[in-house]
From TrEMBL:
This is Transcriptional regulator. The keyword Transcription applies. PANTHER family: HTH-TYPE TRANSCRIPTIONAL REGULATOR BETI, HTH-TYPE TRANSCRIPTIONAL REGULATOR RUTR. Pfam families: TetR_C_6 (PF13977), TetR_N (PF00440). Residues 13-73 form the HTH tetR-type domain. The keyword Transcription applies. Keywords: DNA-binding, Repressor, Transcription, Transcription regulation. It comes from the Bacteria. GO terms for molecular function: DNA-binding transcription factor activity; transcription cis-regulatory region binding. Residues 36-55 bind DNA.
């Protein structure tokens, strides 16, 4: 493969990623069911034929949006985790990252939309469950380290605690996304920190 071909391929991949990033905002605003190629064209200036070339069908584009958003969300927390060593601080990094997504609204709107579509699409359902597995594994590794270091006093299985922790995050995020005046983004963050400290039996 020539250097010219490789350069063109990288440029096309970047352009497709840019389109996906813009499409995320469109889907978050309009909802998946109401999003058409023409809506993404209006937001990006990329023609419908190009979108069809990138993604195939409208449904395939929407699934690509969900996958892009989920991957970007997971990758965004990595550099923040690298900056801290204490297991409790690392747990709070994940909590603040995910409740921060509530603050921006887009991430959680896409997450909710992906749940809805996953109920009807078996392939997407597997992808969404895989996303949960990655978050569960990450949380369980932090909880294991916290118990080992004496920061957490829980004697429950780390994966069970991880599942409960992510369920707390989901449960507090949904009313924020729905605009419940009693659960603001800041309130959700405080409630989550308190609940997590109890869940892991925080010490010190």
């Amino acid at each position: 493969m020539s250097e010219v071909t490789r350069t063109a391929g990288r440029r096309a991949a970047r352009r497709r990623a840019d389109v996906l990033a813009a499409a995320c905002a469109v889907v978050a605003e309009r909802g998946a069911d109401a999003t058409r190629f023409t809506d993404v064209t209006a937001a990006t200036g990329v023609g419908v034929s190009t979108l069809q070339y990138y993604f195939g069908s409208r449904e395939d584009m929407l699934i690509a949006v969900f996958r892009y958003a989920a991957q970007a969300d997971f990758e965004a927390v990595t550099p923040r985790l690298h900056a801290v060593a204490d297991p409790w601080d690392r747990l709070l990094v994940i909590a603040s990252h995910l409740t921060g997504a509530v603050g921006s609204d887009t991430g959680w709107r896409l997450w909710v939309e992906s749940w809805r579509w996953a109920l009807r699409d078996a392939d997407l359902r597997g992808e969404v469950l895989g996303d949960y597995t990655r978050w569960h594994d990450l949380l369980a590794s932090i909880i294991t380290a916290g118990v080992r270091d004496g920061r957490f006093g829980t004697d429950a299985a780390p994966m069970d605690v991880a599942r409960q922790a992510l369920a707390l995050i989901d449960g507090l995020a949904l009313p924020v996304v729905l605009g419940d005046p009693g659960v603001t983004g800041a309130a959700a963050g405080h409630l989550l920190s308190d609940a997590l400290s109890r869940l892991v039996a925080l010490r010190g």
